[in-house]
């Protein structure tokens, strides 16, 4: 079985992968291909149809830079790669610089396509933070001014120089500057309100979930505190009396003091639990073998054999709902498309836990490997007998990928190589967690954050 191509970088933390990875690389590549096609058509039409004299070689060289960047992106990174904010910023900066260079060679602001300066700034305003948009907008304003002052004049076929009246040129420059500023502020404000609403909805859901847990726990805690209050008070009273009677027996007096201190400790614990409950770690952790079997449990009796291979040590890992539901979706997908067997292998690679789920089915369609994990991707067909009465929407893999990435995992998809291992010839999904993101904390109870 061939190993999956994995990046050596550490998996991103939650909050950098989910909200921070904003745009799909395939989307920006598609937009750049459209821009490249439009630029080539415009250059050829101006040169041969409108008979405008242009430095066509230099212009095509500038367009070729965009072609090279796009080809590198297509062949090195999967289409579904999500760009970080820094990557989006430099991508837009490159597009802005390429556009400015092309305009400088084709007449500057006398070229009507100078209006395209607005596009990168508007995308930045909707996708990036205010500071990045401010920097990109400032660069755009500088480039517009440089293009207006130092562009190569546009020459017509008879050798005459095409030039606009100075007032019109200034007005066009001012219109682009105002457009950059206005659209940047407008788009950023609208996007900020949308993101704020999404964050508010997420915070509301988390608060409701916490409130429900506290409501369920509150009655039990209150009853326990009430029932244990009297015995603890009795223990404290009796231990105080014993301490007075054992003044001449230091060892026994120390024992009575210990009993009293422990009674006080029990009182403090009950008081803390009565405020907001303890963080029950035992409910959110378990041995890796049990977590994997719990995730696979609904699919163990569906006529396919599920084989587990675990590391020598059975580490105690976090039992988060995101992990259980994400792994359950991945195992379900493997069982759905497997002919007879599914393998769930776990191993340590240095300080990382690697989980690999493999089936002996037809595998992923090669042309969709770069898009695995996107929503509404339904091209991997299953025999109706494998999924009776089920017609999916292509959201299972997307949900699994999203949930697991929130826990700090990185997912990779590939097809097994039959020559490497004949029985494992189907699809492979590999999930990798850093040890500090998957291993559980020690201890049964922890302080509830609501108590601080």
How would you concisely characterize the structure shown here?
The protein is α+β, with helices and mostly antiparallel strands. The chain has helices at residues 25-49, 56-76, 85-105, 118-127, 130-150, 166-245, 250-276, 288-296, 321-337, 396-406, 435-438; strands at 23-24, 82-83, 154-155, 161-162, 279-280, 285-287, 305-309, 316-318, 341-349, 352-359, 410-415, 427-434, 445-446.
Verbal overview:
- This protein is α+β, with helices and mostly antiparallel strands.
- 54% of the residues lie in helices and 12% in strands.
- The chain contains eleven helices and 13 strands.
- It has helices spanning 25-49, 56-76, 85-105, 118-127, 130-150, 166-245, 250-276, 288-296, 321-337, 396-406, 435-438; strands at 23-24, 82-83, 154-155, 161-162, 279-280, 285-287, 305-309, 316-318, 341-349, 352-359, 410-415, 427-434, 445-446.
- The chain has a five-stranded mixed β-sheet. Strands 1-2 form a two-stranded antiparallel ribbon. A two-stranded antiparallel sheet has the order 3-4.
- Helix 5 (130-150) runs antiparallel to helix 6.
- The chain is elongated and about 115 Å long.
- Mean pLDDT is 79; it is low at 1-20 and 388-393.
């Amino acid at each position: 079985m061939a190993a999956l191509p994995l990046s050596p970088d550490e998996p991103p933390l939650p909050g950098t992968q989910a909200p921070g990875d904003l745009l799909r690389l395939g989307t920006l590549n598609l937009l750049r291909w459209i821009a490249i096609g439009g630029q080539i058509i415009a250059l050829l039409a101006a040169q041969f149809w409108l008979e405008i004299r242009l430095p066509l070689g230099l212009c095509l060289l500038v367009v070729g830079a965009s072609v090279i960047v796009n080809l590198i992106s297509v062949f090195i990174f999967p289409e579904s790669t999500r760009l970080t904010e820094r990557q989006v910023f430099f991508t837009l900066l490159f597009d802005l610089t390429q556009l400015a260079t092309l305009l400088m060679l084709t007449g500057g602001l006398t070229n009507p396509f100078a209006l395209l300066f607005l596009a990168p700034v508007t995308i930045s305003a909707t996708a990036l933070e205010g500071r990045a948009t401010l920097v990109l907008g400032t660069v755009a304003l500088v480039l517009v001014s440089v293009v207006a002052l130092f562009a190569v004049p546009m020459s017509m076929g008879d050798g005459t120089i095409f030039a606009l009246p100075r007032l019109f040129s200034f007005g066009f420059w001012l219109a682009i500057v105002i457009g950059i500023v206005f659209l940047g502020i407008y788009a950023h404000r609208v996007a900020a309100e949308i993101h704020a609403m999404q964050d508010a909805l997420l915070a509301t859901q988390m608060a409701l979930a916490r409130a429900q847990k506290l409501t369920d726990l509150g009655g039990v805690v209150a009853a326990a505190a009430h029932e244990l209050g009297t015995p603890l008070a009795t223990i404290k009273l009796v231990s105080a009396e014993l301490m007075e009677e054992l003044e001449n027996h230091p060892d026994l007096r120390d024992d009575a003091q210990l009993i009293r201190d422990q009674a006080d400790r029990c009182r403090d614990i009950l008081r803390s639990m009565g405020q907001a409950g303890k963080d029950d770690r035992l409910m959110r952790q378990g041995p890796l073998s049990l977590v994997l079997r719990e995730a696979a449990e609904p699919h163990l009796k569906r006529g396919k054999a599920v084989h587990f291979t675990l590391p020598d040590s059975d580490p105690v890992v976090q039992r988060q709902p995101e992990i259980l539901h994400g792994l359950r979706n991945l195992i379900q997908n493997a069982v759905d498309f497997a002919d007879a067997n599914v393998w769930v292998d776990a191993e340590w690679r240095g300080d990382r836990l690697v989980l690999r789920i493999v089936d002996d089915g037809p595998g992923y369609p090669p042309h969709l490997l770069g898009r695995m994990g996107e929503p509404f991707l339904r091209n991997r067909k299953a025999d109706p007998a494998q999924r009776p009465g089920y017609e999916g929407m292509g959201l299972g893999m997307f949900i699994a990928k999203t949930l697991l990435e929130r826990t700090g995992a990185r997912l990779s998809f590939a097809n097994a190589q039959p020559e490497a291992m004949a029985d494992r010839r189907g699809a492979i999904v590999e999930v990798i967690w850093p040890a500090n993101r998957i291993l559980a904390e020690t201890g049964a109870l922890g302080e509830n954050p609501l108590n601080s």
